[in-house]
Amino acid sequence: MTGTTGTTGTTATASTGTLVLAGTPIGDVADAPPRLATELATADVVAAEDTRRLRRLTQALGVQTTGRVVSYFEGNETARTPELVEALEDGKRVLLVTDAGMPSVSDPGYRLVAAAVERDIKVTAVPGPSAVLTALALSGLPVDRFCFEGFLPRKGGERLGKLREVAAERRTMVFFEAPHRLDDTLAAMAEVFGDERRAAVCRELTKTYEEVKRGPLKALAEWAAEGVRGEITVVVEGASDAPQDLDPAELVRRVQVREEAGERRKEAIAAVAAEAGLPKREVFDAVVAAKNAARTGSADVKGLS
User: Fold this and answer.
1) For residue range 221-255, what is the model confidence (pLDDT) as tens digits?
2) Residue 176: predicted pLDDT
3) 211 φ, ψ to 5°?
4) How far is the C-alpha of 95 from the C-alpha of 66, rounded, in Å?
5) Nearest Cα to 149, choosing from 130, 165, 127?
6) Residue 161 has pLDDT above 70, yes or no
7) CB 292: neighbour CB atoms within 10 A?
């Protein structure tokens, strides 16, 4: 029998089931969408990132799952996806929930969605709370255009490299971060984006100790050095369209930072020019002048030989 296209735009055969991606509260359980309780109670299979958290959620919502409950987390996502696809092909309704927020957004889910789409299995969603959009709205930064960058690399050098890739990004940027790495991340952002780039650290959103700390990156890094707890979302202002008011010494310093990280000088100059909204020639001239000054001994400039 030929399938039809549903409201989600996904073509499915009559014999296959449905994959439901369900958003769960990011803090306050009262934020749970009403449909979530119905889906939890009626799904044939509930795939949960953490079955213990699922149990607490169902108790809080006053519902009981009647279907089979299985774990579906980063460690078993690849191995368990075929099993869930098989259930879907058998006509089952599979509900996917993660610990908080929407599945697939820095959480398990993408592999299962991709596999279901490939087999023309219907995929739908129960929209729910989102830490990304909540933090963006609370940040006080421009919201007309934004991008989500997820978690940055854990290693310092790789983290700096990733930040340099987005240094010239004009859209507001949203990141997730672990509390014990927050101070290092904010310090790295200040180094790459500039001390005065505006940002907001959103902590424990919708929970009892919710806090939104706004300010320039350098000040936020100093604040975070004292220790921060909880779930963290960081929102950072995009690069300005207008040229930054940077003196030659700061342009040279930024080029040096990139060179020390392994970039060739030509690439470093181009990147710094893009970040600052300046012609490449202006940055090049500043580097040449510093290099000449270092040779004549009139300035203490390292790394420009």
Assistant:
1) 999 999 999 999 999 999 887 667 788 998 999 89
2) 97
3) -150, 135
4) 12
5) 165
6) yes
7) 13
Query: 166-205: buried (b, 16+ CB within 10 Å) or exposed (e) per residue?
Result: bbbbebbbbbbbeeebbbbbbbbbbbbbbeebbbbbbbbb
**Who's near 39: CB < 8 A, 6+ residues apart?**
20, 22, 95, 126
Do the Cβ atoms of 261 and 188 come closer than 8 Å? no
Comparing 2-16, 103-117, 242-256, the range with the smallest average pLDDT is: 2-16
**Which amino acid, 46?**
V
Comparing CA positions, the residue from 223, 31, 60 lying closest to residue 131 is: 31
Helix or strand holding residue 149 (H, E): strand 146-151
Q: What is the pTM of this model?
A: 0.76
Q: Which helix (H) or strand (E) holds 115?
A: helix 110-118
- pLDDT, position 240: 81
Q: Are strands 93-97 and 45-48 parallel, antiparallel or unpaired?
A: parallel
C-alpha separations of 89 from 49, 115, 153 in Å: 22, 11, 37
Q: What is the CA radius of gyration of the chain?
A: 24
257 vs 94, which has greater pLDDT?
A: 94
